[in-house]
Design a protein that fits this description.
Blueprint: H1 2-14, H2 16-26, H3 33-44, H4 47-51, H5 56-84, E1 97-101, E2 111-118, E3 129-132, E4 153-155, E5 160-163, E6 169-172, E7 175-179, E8 186-189, E9 197-204, E10 207-214, E11 224-227, E12 230-234, E13 238-240, E14 249-252, E15 261-264
Antiparallel strand pairs: 1-2, 2-4, 3-7, 5-6, 7-8, 9-10, 10-13, 11-12, 11-14, 14-15
Length: 267
Amino acid sequence: MNWVLAHRAAVLKELEAACKRHATCLATPGSTFWFCDDVLANEAHSVCPKLFPNDKQCAVFMEVYLLGVDIKAKEIWQSAQACAAKSPAQQHTKPLEVWMRPEILPPHFKGRITFFAVDADTHLPVYAKFKFENQIVYAPASPEGLPATIYPFDYMPKFKRVPNAAGHTDVVPPTVTVTAPYYPDQKFQLAAEVPKLIANMRREKNTITIEAKDATTGKPVEMRVMSGGDPIGETNKPIALRKNERGQIWLTSMFDMYSDVVVAKAR
């Protein structure tokens, strides 16, 4: 109790701006009270390490304080939303400012990512949902179980194929669609680096062996070897060539992890 009496004012002063944003969030059409509470909690959890590093009493006080906010938030949110509903909801013309942490996913990424979205003018957090192209992604930390602003989730990129100028296909990151009430929908290509391949062909009489390895890890990569439009074998294994074989020899990923790679031109 002595700690609370001595330091409560300092902690609450540090939270003053965050609490004002929390109040605004509760009155914003489209916001939910749990989202507003979670935004406040994210900001609040940085206060104790800043003011009282390694002080367990501060951390306990903060959790009790946030619990009190949670208990009252739904009632205040309902009242604030009812008040806001008396006026037409503002239809925003500017898209949300959106970013991701980490900023860029390296090759072979498998880990946690978090999306953030704020209003372009007020810079206040906005509850937006993120949908991946041709992929259902779940976010257990989000109250709705789907990717949304501020909620981290486990993710591994699923690339898609697009035609290229050489008549083959490249794999590229998926498109992400962002939706939020009263804001225009927007789309962006996920900032993810596509794995690259290093290929080398060895000839021995009537056989070839195409060694393929990942440019980042150096590990062998399994690719389908093609001659023209026909599959003739796999990488890192000897392949017997047909007599007078003259088709273009190229590689394609069976798991859509790598872009097509031309190894030898048609003869």
